[in-house]
Amino acid sequence: MSLMNLHGRAAWVFEEDDYDIDLIVGVRNIKITDVKELAALAMADYTPGFAASVKPGDLLVGGHNFGYGHPHYPAMRAMRHLGITAVIAESFSPGFFRGETSMGFPLISCPGIRAATQRGDELTVDWRTNEVKNLRSGQTLALQPFSDSERGMLDAGGLIPYLKRRMAPTG
């Protein structure tokens, strides 16, 4: 199985650099374990009704060092539950990038994406050409390709399936 090209709306464009991922659900809520409760809280401090506005396949767009801070998982568990399929950002905090990639969730580094995207824009990600295209403006941006191991983890659905696949006897 390989990564499928992505097509979705920019459900949110984070204007800040060094965005602390815990703010998606609110730091006070990061110990909540019920994913439905977390999803209902997603972005509530920014805009009421955000959770109801997300459609399956939607994307998040971020700035530089997106995911800064402690790489807690509740915020992105909530976003995945809502239907968010990837984050496209200028760059990612290394710990956040490793954690989400190891869970099989694509974090796409794409310089210039924040300035090129407005909330609601339709975006496509083409893995063959390593490009992100904004269908509203027609602008195409180069994304930073994944390493072989990152691509392998994403293709397999996360680190554990990737390692099982690599350790499986051949022939």
Outline:
The protein has 171 residues and is an alpha/beta fold. The chain is built from seven helices and seven strands, in the order βααβαβαβαβββαα.
Give me the secondary-structure topology:
Blueprint: E1 6-13, H1 35-41, H2 50-53, E2 59-62, H3 74-82, E3 86-89, H4 94-102, E4 107-109, H5 113-116, E5 122-126, E6 131-134, E7 140-142, H6 148-156, H7 159-167
Parallel strand pairs: 1-2, 2-3, 3-4
Antiparallel strand pairs: 1-5, 5-6, 6-7
Helix pairs in contact: 1-3, 6-7
Outline? globular
User: Given the helix and strand composition, which structural class is it?
Assistant: alpha/beta
The count of domains is 1
- Going across the major beta sheet, what is the strand order? 4-3-2-1-5-6-7
Largest sheet: 7 strands, mixed
Q: What is the average per-residue confidence, as pLDDT, rounded to a whole number? A: 94
Total helical elements: 7
| Top CATH class | Alpha Beta
Look up the CATH topology: Aconitase, domain 4
Low-confidence stretches: none
Range of strand content: 15-25%
Tell me the CATH superfamily. Aconitase, domain 4
The CATH architecture category equals Alpha-Beta Barrel
The SSE order reads: EHHEHEHEHEEEHH
Helix percent band? 25-40%
**Straight-line distance between termini:** 19 Å
Number of distinct beta strands: 7
Give a description of the structure.
With about 170 residues, this protein is an alpha/beta fold. The protein has a single domain, classed as Aconitase, domain 4, CATH 3.20.19. About 30% of the residues lie in helices and about 20% in strands. It has 7 helices and 7 strands; from the N terminus they run E-H-H-E-H-E-H-E-H-E-E-E-H-H. It has a 7-stranded mixed sheet with strand order 4-3-2-1-5-6-7. Helix 1 packs across helix 3 (about 75-80) and helix 6 (about 150-155) crosses helix 7 (about 160-165). The chain is globular. About 30% of the residues are buried.
